[in-house]
Design goal:
The protein is built from 14 helices and 16 strands. Helix 5 crosses helix 6 and helix 10 runs antiparallel to helix 11. The protein is globular and about 60 Å long. The protein starts with 25 loop residues before the first helix and ends in a 14-residue tail after the last strand.
């Protein structure tokens, strides 16, 4: 059985958003004000930054380190500029490196690019960030320079494998006080994805989960381990599928029943259990054909998959045809399942800072723990991609950005692996 590391820290009460933070003495207040002013002034002067970029789509060889990437700046009233302390990788970073979703994401970045050949490069990957605010737009009310924050970076924005990242105020949340930046960077993107899938598509929430049975297919990765903890915090009964050597991990974060998909006919094994109210599928493929049969018919039960063909279809067929084909495919499968008494839904990532506020409260009360499998220094981003590309995720792969970014590329040691054995549940979480 593979080893894993669940990071648990002393929990403190969540401190809600506040633009002005009261300090114990006026002297401390003055000092903090000067520090924040200095950070803000510095951010306006910085035009270049260190970052890992890609200039074309391809394999790991397209990753390029530069100290001359264009630094983001405050361009609108709701912008928040963050100095990155830690980032983490998600399977979607590997997919985007190879060009997954390039047509639709390019359009989302710039509506004026429709029908034009303008290049989207260079692209900075990295969908999670934990860091410190260095500047804010004039309309920002919840953050000031010096605040420690975390966020999920939308795929259509420049990512967090860089010294600085710019997001809207709505996409940012105050970091849980009980977590380090390295720990915090493992959570936002999987949290936003899981919450969007379970709440928006699955219809679940803290007030209606007490009598619900939920099945998670492919549960040992980031979305799976977060979903288990969230659902248990809400009072649901959680059944998961994974390989035998991930059983300790998923049980450690709260799974009630575990089915080893490598041990035989997983559909038949799950079919012997009581029917489910919601299925969250992180794997897709063949499971899409048998998993809806595990739901309670004619009771509002929902099958939610995170493996959808939308971006792949627009990549291969173009924006119009790919969108139409995807819509038709969704309609056909949804109608078929509706005739059998269950709902079929696609789940997508959705950026939402206020949702992360709720997650922060759960973290600081000990109900959600970050699950970090391995950490890498900023100098070794390609090795981190290589590790993630090997599959068999047991939590998240985190990049420590701040120290290495300030020192250039001097250090190449210090990789910390928190797992010693690779297993395999084959989950392909692209959201």
């Amino acid at each position: 059985m593979s080893s894993f590391k669940v990071i648990a820290c002393g929990r403190q009460l969540f401190l809600p958003h506040a633009r002005g933070r009261a300090l114990s003495s006026s002297g401390h207040t003055i000092l903090m004000g000067r520090l924040k002013g200095s950070l803000s002034a510095f951010s306006r002067l910085q035009s270049n930054m260190s970052a890992w970029v890609i200039d074309e789509y391809g394999n790991n060889g397209v990753l390029r380190f530069t100290e001359e990437a264009t630094a983001p700046s405050i361009s609108s009233g709701d912008d928040v500029l963050i100095r990155v302390h830690a980032a983490s990788l998600n399977p979607i970073d590997i997919a985007m490196r190879a060009g997954y979703g390039s047509i639709l994401l390019k359009l989302r970045r710039d509506l004026m690019s429709l029908g034009q050949n303008a290049s989207e490069f260079p692209i900075i990957l990295g969908r999670d960030v934990s860091g410190v605010v260095v500047d804010c737009g004039s309309g920002v009310t919840h953050f000031t320079p010096g605040d420690e924050v975390w966020a999920a970076v939308p795929p259509w924005k420049q990512g967090s494998l860089a010294e600085l990242v710019s997001l809207s105020e709505y996409e940012v949340s105050h970091k849980p006080s009980s977590l380090s930046h390295t720990e915090a960077a493992s959570v936002p993107y999987v949290a936003s994805t899981a919450l969007s899938a379970l709440v928006n598509a699955g219809g679940l929430g803290r007030d209606n989960c007490a009598d619900k049975r939920v099945l998670i297919i492919g549960a040992s990765g980031g979305v799976g381990t977060f979903s288990i903890q969230l659902l248990k915090a809400w009072g649901a009964h959680v059944t998961v599928t994974c390989s035998h050597n991930a059983e300790g991990l998923v049980r450690g974060v709260g799974a009630d029943d575990v089915v080893d998909y490598t041990a035989g006919d997983v559909a038949a094994e799950l079919g012997r259990l009581e029917k489910f109210d919601v299925v969250l599928d992180n794997v897709g493929g063949g499971s899409e054909h048998w998993a809806p049969d595990l739901l309670k018919a004619w009771s509002g039960a929902k099958y939610v998959t995170l493996v959808t063909p939308l971006l792949a279809n627009t990549d291969s067929m173009g924006l119009l045809e790919g969108g139409v084909r995807s819509g038709l495919a969704l309609s056909q499968v949804a109608v078929k399942n509706m005739c059998n008494g269950v709902f079929y839904r696609w789940g997508f990532y959705a950026p939402d800072g206020p949702v992360l506020d709720d997650v922060s409260r759960l973290v600081d009360t000990g109900k959600i723990l970050p699950v970090v499998e391995a950490t890498f220094p900023f100098a070794q981003v390609p090795l981190a991609f290589q590790k993630l590309e090997g599959g068999h995720a047991r939590g998240k792969t985190v990049i420590s950005v701040n120290q290495e970014a300030q020192e250039g590329m001097a250090g190449t040691e210090g990789v910390e692996e928190n797992t010693s054995e690779a297993g395999g549940d084959g989950a392909k979480e692209l959201n």
